[in-house]
Amino acid sequence: xxxxxxxxxxxxxxxxxxxxxxxxxxxxxxxxxxxxxxxxxxxxxxxxxxxxxxxxxxxxxxxxxxxxxxxxxxxxxxxxxxxxxxxxxxxxxxxxxxxxxxxxxxxxxxxxxxxxxxxxxxxxxxxxxxxxxxxxxxxxxxxxxxxxxxxxxxxxxxxxxxxxxxxxxxxxxxxxxxxxxxxxxxxxxxxxxxxxxxxxxxxxxxxxxxxxxxxxxxxxxxxxxxxxxxxxxxxxxxxxxxxxxxxxxxxxxxxxxxxxxxxxxxxxxxxxxxxxxxxxxxxxxxxxxxxxxxxxxxxxxxxxxxxxxxxxxxxxxxxxxxxxxxxxxxxxxxxxxxxxxxxxxxxxxxxxxxxxxxxxxxxxxxxxxxxxxxxxxxxxxxxxxxxxxxxxxxxxxxxxxxxx
Length: 404
Ligand code: FAD
Ligand code: PYC
Hints:
The chain is of the alpha/beta class.
């Protein structure tokens, strides 16, 4: 007697890899899965394998603090991230899965005159491109967040802030699952616990991929592995300026809702929002050394807690529940590296450092276009690898939330 079981809730499990795929995507994070989803949905390319060495969303996608915003500094950055915010706003409906997208408003606090100058610069670029951003005084910060100590214990008074009304948070796992489920439904194969160990290149073009579960032949490989990028680019003999630093985060025990906005202070090295479960989700600056590891430290918790108490002294008895780290693939100009590469059929979606969760939908859109047409999408031209050789950088350091 054979029982009829329901369809899998998220995606199918495949016993074996096919011998060949039209496209192989390395990395089952948000970016890889979003690219697979739009390849299938928008271009009808479904003979696609997503290879993930661990479990989907287990990399930086599942470790990030989920801040979504488009208040960048360069016109290219603002246009790109604005598209992503727009895609995010419709994502729950698109997936028929609740990603808990929540528009909260985003304050970047300025404690010095020079920080305030950068806020004005960003506000003007943003407004010019139709993105809602404005500089506000400390009284507006206090109005939006009454429990804040606007003097920060007297040693770093808040002079003003960049306020970005569309700033939002979302459930990171649901973003990975939504893209994974949608890609799977359209025929894409997701292979977890499948590590890419080598890439065959012949005559300057991709031929196939060696994996922990056998060999696959393919003419197109998309690399979307964030903190593991240098290991993969090495396999095809490609040099990039990416360097990897740990970025840590932590959450408190759940509290009654009291923090409605997202707050960031580059000077105090703090960013914080309150999740739907009531936890304060917090992070600080990058760890100061280059290392490929996801361990977390007591130093980090102590430093971040001290700065949180500058802003909110009343939190002194609140417990920290969890801490963790991800591997941030940093670039010298704090912009990503996207698009075609000198190796034919090898496409790169990398350099996402501390800022790539918010870009997940637009990366899927633009990388699927680039892979399908073998031509860089116009929104990513400013992010090409060749900009470093051409000294044509896309300087976004002033718009990074995280201190460096
Ligand atoms: P990942 O999610 O890391 O996925 C890459 C996948 O590739 C991994 O699952 C990995 O297992 C897999 N992989 C690696 N090597 C191989 C291999 N050889 N074979 C097969 N699979 C492989 N961004 C924001 O916009 N807002 C934020 O608030 C924010 N906060 C952050 C906080 C922290 C603590 C961290 C660490 C990052 C934060 N980021 C934030 C950055 C953001 O998380 C990343 O830029 C983004 O998630 C990158 O997504 P991805 O899909 O490219 O990479
Ligand atoms: O890019 O907004 C961001 C961010 C916040 C925390 C880490 N990255």
